[in-house]
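Minutes, project check-in
Item: structure for the 168-residue chain
Input as provided by the requester:
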Amino acid sequence: AASVRLNPAATASTASSLVSNGYMRTPIRTPECPTFCPHPLFADFHTFTSLFLYSRRKDGRGALFEEFKGALTEQYACQELIASCGLVPYYWSAENSRGEVDFLVQSAGAVYAIEVKAEENLRAKSLRSFKEKYPEVQARRFSLSDYREQDWLTNVPLYLMGNTGLWL
C-alpha cells in the first residue's frame, strides 16, 4: 500500500495537492465567515475574538459565543495544533457532498483526522464517513465531553488538545 503523507508545501495557492501519493487530493474550501473577514483562521486567537467582541445581534445579545462558538472553537483548535502541538493543520472537504473534516495532521508517519465540537454533541457523521473511506487514518474528536475511546475514534476534551502524549 502507498504511504500516507501530508504535503507540507501545500498552501492556498497550491491547495489542490493537500495530500501527496494520491491519497486525498482535495482543494481547500473557504469556511463560512462574516463578510468583512476574508481570512477564516487567524494566527492569533485573541485577534480573531477581538473582531467579534462587540458585535451585537438585533435582540441586543452578544454574538461572540452564540453565533460564532463553532468558529471560535475551531480557531482555538487551529492555534493549539500549531503553537502547542507543533503540527501543520490541513482542511478536507468532500468533492460531491457537504462532508468535511475540520483538520488533518500528520505525526510520526500517522495521519489524524480531527473533528472539533463546541458542545457535547458527539455526532460526527463526516468524520465517520471519512474514517470508513480511509480506515488507516486515526480519528480524533475534541469536544466538551470527557475522554473516551470508542471502536473507531477517540474523544478528547478540548482543554487537553495541547497534551499530544494523550491523543497522538
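Outcome recorded: The domain at 12-167 is CATH 3.40.1350.10 (Trna Endonuclease; Chain: A, domain 1).
No further action items on this chain.
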